[in-house]
From TrEMBL:
Coiled coil: none annotated. This is Probable multidrug resistance protein NorM. Multidrug efflux pump. Keywords: Antiport, Cell membrane, Ion transport, Membrane, Transmembrane, Transmembrane helix, Transport. GO terms for cellular component: plasma membrane.
Length: 455
């Protein structure tokens, strides 16, 4: 795991430290996106209605997953800052409070999603045929059961990443993904359960992962930070406030960003199954292209959070630039691979030729621009969040989503009657606005706020 800042003077992380942190994160992110692809590939054998239903609900689920991930991010920032400030007991308490908050929030979301599945689908995707509607409702109700378990897993993973031990969370993720993939195969090809065949394994795999990572985190008492179970059952408002200071703006930002994506997909859904399916497949392939960038973004939270906790501004700037260079590297390489083997990737999916052709166009739009703008739009803001500049990132992201991504998509759809292609072009405009503002904020130095330990 990463060395504590008090043990040496100079750069807080050498190349070995960063490698130990980042490589397991890359593997974990790769597994996450490939499992998502396996869900889509396998359910595609159950028909276009099934794959459309799953893709629509995945957009809704991503809103919830983003909210839970934001809480974990808030916890990771606070824990990392406490470690950088050499306050390890406080870091342990923050870890326990993160587990408690995330679980309670997830339980309420789960109950709401199950109870109101029908009206949620109706409001969000009203103009879809009955087969897609029923598939969507079934998938949402089953996957909602897993939200509390996912919250526990995310919290445990955040604890390990904060201390630099991303290898443990990677191993648990591998276990979770193996269970999920095997379960998908059994559910779809042996039991012929359709959308339920990919939903039920998600519940089982997340539950197993939650139990395993909680046990490991509570027994890891030799680590800088570990989970004290007894502290999970007590409310400490000051620690919750610190986590929520980061978590609430990040949660609002991430959740409303995903809501915006759902709204955009609802525009696409008006253009029929082909566009819905092509959008879903392109999202999977493009996710594969940027997933290693997500790993750099997660590492940014740990590294910059430590620097903030230690009050080392110059080192924070140094590591932001270094990690951004890594971010570009891990985006460019997969983009080239996807460009070269695009047709082979798309042919995996059992969909009509028209869907495959549209998917190819969408992938070109995304990856052709992602190599320039994606790291600035989605990795750099994590540095700002770790510096407690969460309100700025929230404001820019929400404004850009509402005005550029959703507003422009709606305009193109209504005026020019263009569906998925118009939506993806609007996404590029969104990226341009985001990246330019985040770069300006970082260069100005205004992102560095007083750290939470001094409040």
């Amino acid at each position: 795991m990463l060395r504590d800042s008090e043990k040496y003077i100079g750069k807080m992380f050498d190349n070995t430290d960063l490698k130990v942190l980042i490589v397991p994160l890359i593997i974990e992110q790769f597994l996450a996106i490939t499992v998502g692809m396996s869900d889509t590939v396998m359910v595609s054998f159950a028909g276009e209605a099934a794959v459309s239903g799953v893709s629509l609900v995945d957009m809704v689920n991503n809103v919830i997953i983003s909210l839970l991930a934001a809480l974990a991010t808030g916890g990771a920032v606070v824990i990392s800052q406490f470690i950088g400030a050499r306050r390890h007991e406080d870091a342990c308490m923050a870890a326990a409070q993160l587990e408690l908050m995330a679980f309670v929030v997830a339980v309420f979301i789960s109950i709401f999603s199950i109870a109101f599945a029908h009206p949620l689908i109706s409001v969000l995707f009203g103009n879809i045929d009955s087969e897609v509607f029923e598939a969507s409702k079934k998938y949402l109700m089953i996957t909602a059961i897993s939200f509390p378990m996912l919250a526990i897993y995310n919290s445990g993973a955040a604890i390990y990443r904060s201390i630099g031990d991303s290898k443990t969370s990677m191993k648990v993720s591998i276990l979770m993904n193996i269970i999920n993939i095997v379960g998908n195969y059994i559910g779809v090809f042996i039991l012929h359960l359709g959308v339920a065949g990919v939903a039920i394994p998600s519940v089982i795999s997340r539950s197993v992962a939650a139990v395993v990572i909680t046990i490991l985190a509570s027994k890891n008492k030799d680590a800088t930070v570990f989970l004290k179970i007894k502290e999970v059952f007590g409310i400490k408002s000051d620690f919750m406030r610190r986590i929520l200071y980061i978590g609430i703006p990040s949660g609002i930002e991430n959740s409303l960003f995903q809501v915006g994506r759902v709204a955009v997909v609802s525009i696409i859904s008006n253009f029929g199954r082909t566009q819905i399916a092509a959008n879903a497949i392109a999202n999977n392939l493009d996710g594969l292209g940027v997933n290693m960038g997500n790993a750099i973004g997660i590492a940014m939270i740990t590294v910059i959070g430590r620097c903030v906790g230690a009050g080392k501004y110059k080192e924070a700037k140094y590591y932001v630039k270094k990690l951004m260079c890594m971010g570009y590297l891990v985006i460019i390489i997969p983009a080239l691979i996807i460009f070269l083997f695009q047709n082979s990737f798309i042919s995996i999916y059992k969909v009509p030729d028209a869907t495959k052709e549209l998917t190819a166009v969408l992938v070109w739009i995304h990856m052709g621009v992602a190599v320039f703008l994606w790291p600035l739009s989605f990795i750099l803001p994590n540095a700002l969040r770790a510096g407690n500049d969460v309100k700025f990132t929230m404001g820019i992201s929400l404004f850009s989503m509402a005005v550029f991504r959703f507003g422009t998509s709606l305009f193109i759809a209504k005026v020019f009657h263009i569906g998925a292609v118009g939506v993806w072009c609007a996404m590029i405009i969104d990226w341009i606005f985001r990246s330019s503002n985040f770069v300006y904020r970082f260069a100005s130095g205004k992102w560095w706020h007083k750290d939470l330990k001094k409040e």
